[in-house]
Amino acid sequence: MTAHTENTENTEGPDGRTAPPPPGPGPRALARRRRRASAARFWHRYRTHRSGLLGLAVLALCALLALSAPWTVGEEVRSVTRATGGPMEGPSARFWLGTDQFGRDLWGLLVWGARVSLLVGLLAAVLSVAIGALVGITAGHFGGWYGTLAMRVTDWFLVMPTLVLAIALATVLSRSLGTVVLAIGVTTWPTTARLVRAQTLAVESRPYIERARALGGGHRHVMTRHVLPNVLPLVLAQTTLGISAAILAEATLAFLGLGDPTVTSWGGMLQDAREAGAVSAGHWWYLVPPGAAIATVALAFTLCGRAVESVLNPRLGASG
């Protein structure tokens, strides 16, 4: 009784009336709180995947090296006229990975190449997943003749060799990083489109979608407020997995001479090594570092993608 009396006195205003309870957190604050809690749960589950943590550590190291390139190795390392070594020098204390045919430090070129390869891989993967998500959601939502036509176009892109299409686009358009990103992005989206369409059909068969439509929700409301949040985990996993494929595609295009000749990338270094005759001359230090870097980063992104996929869909398997 005493506790109840004290509580009543605390809620009475100066005129003796009962004051309203203090207002709770607003909708935005609740949304931010839920997002923070969701991110904390995601990270807690992600930490149980040792392979995912290893991939994340490798990517963090590569990103740190790439971002610090202007201060750690300097921009002059890319200049042919300001080369500090002799042509095709082997690894030494001065040049950790040796030099190229112009006498440039290969370690510095490798660090600068990380900036381009990571950037192109990320942008191309985001473009590819964005196109695939848009096609998949709209095809699954509208269905009918539009859905059939969208899936037939998707099937056409699936049966066509991706590399051939990318080479054709890179040949027709100007040689630049934007062309490489566009060539990779517009040729690698069909897999994402089919996966997102299947997930969209599953989401739209649920009862709350019918209730949303009965309450007046239009196509835009259903797709953006209900379908998109449910397919976002799949889109995130596809983006992480797609970056490794995009990096390999960029390296392939650069190796074939279809990249931007004014920038330094890992694929471009392999192309330069081939033109300099490093293969026949046995200059392994010119070939191994960029090839190993491409393989390492692609593997790291794959490990992270598998871990993200397993966290978002625990039925895929146990932690690794």
Number of strands: 0
Low-confidence stretches: 1-11
Class of secondary structure makeup: mainly alpha
How would you spell out the order of helices and strands? HHHHHHHHHHHHHH
User: Could you tell me the mean pLDDT?
Assistant: 84
Our count of helices gives 14
Strand content: under 5%
Sketch the major β-sheet.
none
- Please identify the oligomeric state: single chain
| Distance from first to last alpha carbon | 57 Å
Radius of gyration: 27 Å
Shape: globular
Q: Helical proportion?
A: over 70%
Task: Write structural notes for this entry.
With 320 residues, the protein is mainly alpha-helical. It has helices at 2-10, 27-46, 50-67, 69-72, 106-142, 144-159, 162-172, 177-185, 190-204, 207-214, 219-255, 266-275, 278-281, 284-312. Helix 5 (106-142) packs antiparallel against helix 6 (144-159) and helix 8 packs across helix 11.
